[in-house]
Amino acid sequence: MAEAVDYRYVGTRPVRPDGVDKVTGRAQFGADQNLPNMLHGRVLRSPHAHARIKKVDVSKALAMDGIHAAVSGADFPAVASGEIGGEGGGDVADIACNIMARDKALYHGHAVAAVAATSVEIAERALEAIEVEYEALPPVLDVLEAMAPDATLLDENCFTKNLPEKPDKPSNIASVMVLARGDLEAGFEQADVVVEGEYRIPMAHQGYIEPHACTATVNEEGKATVWCCTQGHFEFRAMTSKILNWKIGDLKFVASEIGGGFGGKTVVYLEPVAVMLSKHAGRPVKMVMSREEVFRATGPTSGSVCRVKVGAQKDGKITAAKAWLAYEAGAFAGAPVMPGAMSIFAPYEIENFLVEGHDVLVNKPKVAAYRAPGAPQAMHAFEVALDDIARQIGMDPLDLRMANAADEGTQAPYGPKFPAIGFKACLEAAKKHPNYTKPVPEGAGRGVAAGFWFNIGMQSSAEVRINEDGTVIVMEGSPDIGGSRASMGLMAAETLGVPYEQIKTYVGDTESTGFCNVTGGSRTTFATGLAVVQACEDIIAQCKSRAAATWSMDEDQVEWEDGQAVPAPGVNADVKPLSLADIAASAPKTGGPILGRASLNAQGAGASFSVNFADLKVDPETGAVEVLSFTGIQDAGKAIHPAYVEGQMQGGAAQGLGWALNEEYIYDANGVMENAGFLDYRVPVASDLPMIDTEIVEVPNPSHPYGVRGVGETPIVAPLAVAANAVRDATGTRINDLPLSPPRILAALGDD
Amino acid sequence: MSKMHIHTTINGDEVDFLGSPQQSLLDALRDEVGKLGTKEGCGTGDCGACSVIVDGRLVCSCLMLAAEAEGAEITTIEGIADGDGLHPIQEKFLEHAALQCGVCTPGFIVAAKALLDRNPDPDERTIRYWLAGNLCRCTGYDKIIRAVQDAAQELAHEA
C-alpha cells in the first residue's frame, strides 16, 4: 500500500470558487437563461402508455395567434443506429425516438409534438389544438410479464441479442448477458448453508431538484447556440448533431450551472426539440419541464427482479453464488444490467459464480443512468442474502465480509485483477468505529452492507492560463455538479505550488475549451483532475524554460519549488528565485503569454468500495421506519476536498435510504404513473434523517498523481441493503422487496 | 387577457410590475421582476426551492398568486446579504460545504433566515422540522443543518 502523503492544499477545505454566486442567487441554472425576442416551447405528450401513432396534425396549432412553430416526429430526420454518450447514453436512434415519438408512443408522457409560442399559456393552449390519432395497445408494465413468450411486444423488430443463436421470434428481452467462473454445482455441494431469495425493486427517480431546461437560438446562418443544464455539454452537442443531422461545428453548447443530475442529465430530452423549434420560428426558444414531466418522461432507473442463491461454509467462506437479474429498460433497450451483473459480487473473492442478466423493454420511460447505475439493485439482493448467511452461521456480518473480501491481486468477477483497493481497510474501519462497537439501541435493529463502483476514466481536456500578475485561470469542460471546481483548484494549487486563492476555475462551453466526456461515472476529479494536473505540469515546464533563459542556464539546471523557479541543487548561481508572478510579469520578453494544456483519455480509474451500517427503528403501529444513525465508510483513494467527499457520502446515503424506505414509481393498470410529484413520490426531507456520520478511508489509486479514485456513486449502493438488514434485525422478519414503506412493513409484520 | 398592476416592496426597493391574474408570485418574480435567484423545483409547493419571505412569513412563491402580493414586503435570496458582506447564514453555508449543486440553496437560505428571525436559538430537531419543506437531493441535509446551527451561534455572538 502506498504511503500517506501530506499535501499543502490537497486535503484542505476551502470555499468553492462558485460558492458566493450560489448562496446569493446569482448563479445561472438551466431555466435562468432569457434572450431578447424569446419564445416558450412546450411538449405534447402521449396519454397512452402504448399506442400506434396513426397521424399527427399540428396545422390548427400553427394557425393560432402567438404560435411561431409546431413540430412532430415527421419533422425530424431518421437516425441511424449507433452508440453515443459516455455513461448511460445509449443508441442514438432510440434517443431520437425518445425525444420525439415517430410511429409509436411507448410510455405515458412520451413526446409526440411540440410548439413555440409567445407565452407558456399560449403554447399550452396550442397543444390542445394538435390532432393526434392513436391506436391504443395493451401496455406491458411488469418486467416478468414482459419476458413471457406471449407478451405484447413493444418493438416487433427486437430480437434478443447475445443468445447463442439468433432467435426466430422477436421479444421484449432486448439482450441477455452472462458472467461465470468456476464450477457452480461443486461450489454449492461444498456449502454448509445455502440462502436463496427473490428481490424486487420498483423504478425510482434521481429526483434532482432542477427540472430539465434549455434555451436555443438559431441564427440566419444556421448556427445554433444552446444553453442547458447538462452533465455533459459536449455529448449533448454530439447527440443533437446526430438527431438533427446537423454539423457539430454549427452547434455551440453552453452548460449552465446544473441543479443535480445523478446520471439523469446525461442524455438529451429538450435540446434537439428547442433547436428545431427555434429554426422553424427564427427566434430563440426556451423550454423548461414541469416536475410532472420530469417524473413521467425523463429517465428513472430500472425496476428490477433479482434472484440470488449463495452457499457458504460454517467459517463464512462463500463457496458458490448465483444471480439472475431482470432489469426494466423502459421504452428502449439499455437497462444498466451489465454493470449490475459486474458489480454484484465485486467486493468478494468467489471461485464459483454465475450471473445472468436480462435487459427488458416495458412501457415506461427509458431509464437513464442513476448513480452507480445498476449496482444498487443487484447488490441489494446479494448483500441481503449475505446477511441471512451470517445469521444462519452465527457470524458478525463484517467478519463474514472480511472472510471473503477482495484485495489487491483478487481477480474481479468482471475480469481484471484489482490493484491496491480499500475494501478490507473499510471493513477494519467499520469494525472499530464507535458507532459499531456501541450496542444497538433498545428496540432498534442494525444493518450492515457493502458497496462498490468501478469509477471510470474517459476523455478530458484542461487549459491553464497565467494572467499578467501570476494569478491562474483553470479552464475545463466538466460541468460542476457538486464542487468539482474547488477540487480542480486544489489540485492546480498543489501542482503549481501557488495558493488556492490565486486560482480561478471555470467550466468552458464547447467552443472555449477542449472535449470532456460527461460528469458521470465518478470520473471528474479523477480524469479531468488528471488533465488539470498535466496542464499545470506543462506550465511548470514552460516556466522552468523561461527561468533558464533569463538566467542563461540549461533547462535541467532549473527546478520548480513552492511555486518558484530555483536553480537545481549543486547549480552555482547568484540568482533570486522567480515566482509565477515574476515569470508572468516578464513573459512579454521571454516568449509571450503562458498557456498550458493537456488532453487525455484517462486510464486506471480506481474502484471505490464502501461499508455502511445503520440503526433503524420500526414503529409496529404505523410501519414507519426511523433512522437513528447512519455511518458511511468509503475508500476515496484521496479526498481532494474532504468536505465535498463527505457530502457525496452523506447525499448518497440519503438518496439510498429514500430508495430503500419510500421511493417508487406507482403505476395504474393503464401504465399511468400515479405519483408524479414530490408530494407522493416522497424523497427524504430533513426531519426524516439524523446526522450522517462518515469516515473517509484513503488507499491511493496508483494511476492518479494524488491517488484519486472518485467517490460520487459508491455511496448510494449499500444503503438499500443496510436498511433491509436493519429492518430484519429490528423486526425479526425478512422483507425481500423494496421500498420498506409503511404499508409493506405492516403487511409483512401482520403475516407473522 | 389584461394584466394587473401590482405594487410591492422587494428587498427594500419599491417594485411595480404587471402580472396576469393566474400568474404565480414565483413566475412574476422570475419573469416580470428578474429575480432569478428564486428557483422552481416543482411548482406545487413540495420542494421549497421558491421560498421567499412575504410580510414576515415564509412562503412557497409558487403557491401564491402574484396579485396576492399587492402591497406586500417581499424578501428574496437577492435581499439576504446586507450591504458589503454575506449574511452569516450564507457564510456558514460556504464554510460547511452545505451545498453541492446549489439549486435548492437560495430556498434553504431564505427559509433558514425566516427561522432564525423568529427563533434565534433553535435545536437540531426544530431546524430539521422547519426545513422539512425544503428538499435537497445532494447533501443528505447534514451539512445544511450544521451550517444553520453555526449561523445561529454566530448571530447570537453578534447580537
End-to-end span of chain B in angstroms? Answer: 50 Å
Distance, first to last CA of chain A: 49 Å
Query: Strand count, sense and closure of the main sheet of chain B?
Result: 5 strands, mixed
What composes the largest sheet of chain A? 7 strands, mixed
Q: Which of globular, elongated, flat, extended, rod-shaped describes the shape of chain B?
A: globular
The fourth-level CATH homologous superfamily of the largest domain in chain B is Beta-grasp domain
Q: Total number of helical segments of chain A?
A: 21
Low-pLDDT runs of 5+ residues of chain A are: none
Residues in helices of chain B, as a percent range: 25-40%
What level of helicity do the residues of chain A show?
A: 25-40%
- The helix/strand class of chain A is alpha+beta
List the strand order in the largest sheet of chain A.
Answer: 3-7-1-14-11-12-13
Describe this structure in words.
Helix content of chain A is 28%, strand content 24%. In chain A, the strands form seven sheets. In chain A, strands 3-7-1-14-11-12-13 form a seven-stranded mixed β-sheet, sandwiched between helices. In chain A, strands 9-17-16-15-10 form a five-stranded mixed β-sheet, with helices on both faces. Chain A is α+β, with helices and mostly antiparallel strands. Chain A has three domains: 19-26 and 466-596, Aldehyde Oxidoreductase, domain 4; 33-137 and 210-259 and 265-297, Alpha-Beta Complex (Aldehyde Oxidoreductase, domain 3); 304-455 and 606-751, 2-Layer Sandwich (Aldehyde Oxidoreductase, domain 4), CATH 3.30.365.10. With 159 residues, chain B is an alpha+beta fold. Chain B has two domains: 4-79, Beta-grasp domain (Ubiquitin-like (UB roll), Roll); 88-158, Orthogonal Bundle (DNA polymerase, domain 1). Chain B has a five-stranded mixed β-sheet, with helices on both faces. In chain B, a hairpin with a 2-residue loop joins strand 1 and strand 2 (13-19). The interface between A and B is large, with 59 and 58 residues.
